[in-house]
Amino acid sequence: MNPFASTIRPALLLAAAALILGSAGLAPAGSAAGETRALPPPAADETAAAPSEVAVFAGGCFWGVQGVFQHVTGVTNAVSGYAGGDARDAHYERVGSGATGHAESVQVTYDPRKISYGRLLQIYFSVAHDPTQLNRQGPDLGRQYRSAIFPQNAEQARLAKAYIAQLDGAGVFDASIATTIEPGKTFYPAERYHQDFMSNNPDYPYVVYNDLPKVEALKRLFPTIYRSEPVLVSRR
User: Which residues belong to the active site?
Assistant: First the structure.
């Protein structure tokens, strides 16, 4: 059986349910169809040291998170994958059980001379996902869809923790931020058919409802760092 077909069918069912809810005025809380707004920038940020750095974020289905960061100026690559569990479980079918410890994640490679880690955090919390949802994101349920940051060093961990405290303290959300900070975890790239999924499938119902609005929000709220041409894994 085509692994692509077996992987996408569950997502299509979820997309259909989401579209029904949306047409009834009952869009899932925190979905891309909901309200988005630019959050205040971090009070603390990194000091650029190297021409290239890596950040790893999890915020629900990796298609949309990857798609958002692919449209950010200064990002040189964004790869969908898994983080939080072991190498032997870093496969879509296993991660989908929700019992592997993995979260669908995106590894973002960026030039800190053009965009900082703090700015990436601001985008992540503003438009890439809803950080107040616990072990879910929109129509997707399970720990594999949790909101999580996988810092690559102590400074990233410190900045992420400080920014979450800043946002919670300012009360910018109606609920507390559920994002976890999970250091010391290895990132494993996902299967090829998941890479560039939003760009390759812009008419796919799940993408139309959940993911494309995130990119539109990025364009609207962060016009100075939005890039119309995404940086794609397939072009590297």
Answer: 61
